[in-house]
Design a protein that fits this description.
Blueprint lengths: L7 E6 L8 H10 L3 E6 L9 H8 L10 H6 L2 H7 L2 E7 L1 H8 L6 H8 L4 E5 L3 H5 L1 H12 L3 E2 L3 E4 L5 E5 L3 H13 L8 E6 L3 E5 L2 E4 L5 H12 L3 E6 L11 E4 L3 H11 L5 E4 L6 E2 L20 E2 L3 H6 L7 E8 L3 H12 L3 E6 L10 E8 L2 E9 H19 L4 H4 L3
Parallel strand pairs: 1-2, 1-3, 3-4, 4-5, 8-11, 8-13, 11-12, 13-16, 16-17
Antiparallel strand pairs: 6-7, 9-10, 14-15, 17-18, 18-19
Helix pairs in contact: 1-2, 1-9, 4-6, 5-8, 10-14
This protein binds cytidine-5'-triphosphate.
Cytidine-5'-triphosphate binds next to helix 12 and strand 16.
């Protein structure tokens, strides 16, 4: 995993017993190349001194919103802007509640409101406090707003009880945070073509056959690839969501149009991700006039639609790294492995569908398969899922040397 150069982490420390682990956390983050600025709450200073945190971070610790001397050096808004990432560890139940409700009654909560950097919390508290419906609701709200939640772990607690509520170990936290952030630019300088949404095969001027697909997953992948530094072309069938900004958007209708648009976008592409629900069968050239109900039965003869994924995977030259999807109702992994081989793709991301799973839902899970490897991405929001999938694609593409176009060009 690449560590971004001098990434600036603002570490918020709140008043829990786990605050004694903060100096170790600062060291672990610095070992991984981060610059760390510590901000403590009043409660934190009862567990740990600012002096120890200043010694390990090499920077004066900030504690007060109303500290004129410190504000003169770096104001709280500047501090919020300085951060590439904000990590609050340990995050107490009280801090989570204040964050969830948008309070700005001390320096740390004010910073969290003012920053545009990704915000991650590592909760630590007694297991009953963690299980309390108020905390559960606050954490759900934070997650819904895109705030990362790392842990807590299960185990013996400072209060003598055993259960969920322990802060993750500093080494684990540092690794998780840095790999999340490092994953951010893993496609820097690459070109990615994504196909998404359903296709429509026209029967006549007012009717069509189509597949069930909201396009959400494909659009989230396009957005994640863009955020990872790629230039992205998103080829989409009719979907009712807005395309992400900063990607080249090509709207299509039928499977054939999608195939043509994908191939037109491929020159120079390093990765192709086929997330569209392409119709497997198409109608003959659409009737010019509306089909009238003149008989009791209507027979439709359909022919096979082009298989876009297989056509890209089969390219003799200029072949990108090819990632397909497999929506399966049963034997997910077995069917997906067979699909990987049959289509000649480099990777397949499989999910279970049916019974209202996956379609139109904002949460999903994936099993990612490639030749000799697999990785599960557990249930999470589609954007987080897309971000993680992009990280796996970047890693496997590098590791297997199947770098598509770049690998195919000698020298
Ligand atoms: N796909 C494609 N062109 C098609 C059909 C599917 O490019 N005509 C792509 C999809 O975008 C997806 C992958 O192939 O990435 C698998 O799609 P899926 O519908 O699960 O597989 P099928 O090939 O249709 O196989 P089956 O219906 O037998 O499960």
């Amino acid at each position: 995993m690449e560590t971004p150069r001098s990434l600036r982490v603002l570490l918020g420390v709140t008043g829990g017993i786990a605050a004694y682990k903060s100096p170790d956390l600062v060291r672990r983050l610095r070992e991984r190349g981060a610059e760390v600025q510590v901000v403590m709450t009043a409660g934190a200073s009862r567990f740990i001194t600012a002096l120890s945190l200043q010694a390990v971070s090499g920077r004066p610790v900030r504690q007060e919103l109303w500290d004129e001397a410190a504000e003169a050096a770096m104001g709280h808004i500047e501090l919020a802007r300085w951060a590439d990432a904000v990590l609050v560890a340990p995050a107490t139940a009280d801090f989570l509640a204040r964050l969830a409700h948008g309070r700005a009654d001390d320096l740390l909560t004010t910073l969290c409101l003012a920053t545009t950097a990704p915000l991650t919390v590592a909760p630590a508290m007694n297991r009953q406090m963690w299980a309390n419906p108020a905390t559960v609701a606050n954490v759900a709200l934070l997650k819904q707003r895109g705030i990362g939640v790392l842990g807590p772990d299960e185990g013996s607690q400072a209060c003598g009880e055993i259960g969920a509520g322990r802060m993750l170990e500093p080494g684990q936290l540092a690794e998780l945070l840095m790999s999340q952030l490092g994953a951010d630019r893993v496609l820097q300088g690459l070109k990615v073509v994504v196909s998404a949404g359903p296709t429509r095969e026209r029967l006549d001027p007012v009717r069509y056959i189509s597949n069930r697909s909201s396009g959400k997953m494909g659009y989230a992948i396009a957005q994640a690839a863009r955020d990872a530094g790629a230039s992205v072309v998103l080829v989409s069938g009719p979907a009712e969501i807005d395309p992400p900004t900063g990607v080249e958007f090509v709207a299509v209708e039928s499977a054939r149009q999608m195939r043509d648009a994908v191939h037109a976008a491929l020159p120079g592409a390093d990765i192709y991700i086929g997330a569209a629900a392409v119709a497997d069968y198409q109608a003959p050239p659409a009737a010019v006039q509306k089909i009238k109900k003149t008989s009791e039965r209507l027979k439709l003869e359909l022919t096979r639609a082009p298989d876009i994924l297989a056509s890209v995977a089969g390219l003799a030259s200029g072949r990108p790294f090819v990632v397909g999807f497999a929506a399966e109702t049963e034997n997910v992994e077995e069917n997906a492995r067979a699909k990987l081989a049959r289509k000649g793709a480099d990777m397949i991301a499989a999910n279970r569908v049916g019974d209202d799973l996956a379609f139109d839902r904002d949460e999903n899970s994936l099993i990612v398969l490639w030749d000799g490897g697999r990785e599960e991405i557990p249930t999470c929001g589609k954007f987080e899922l897309a971000r993680r999938l992009v990280a796996v694609i970047a890693r496997v593409r590098r590791a297997t040397g199947r770098a598509g176009r770049t690998a195919a060009v000698p020298g």
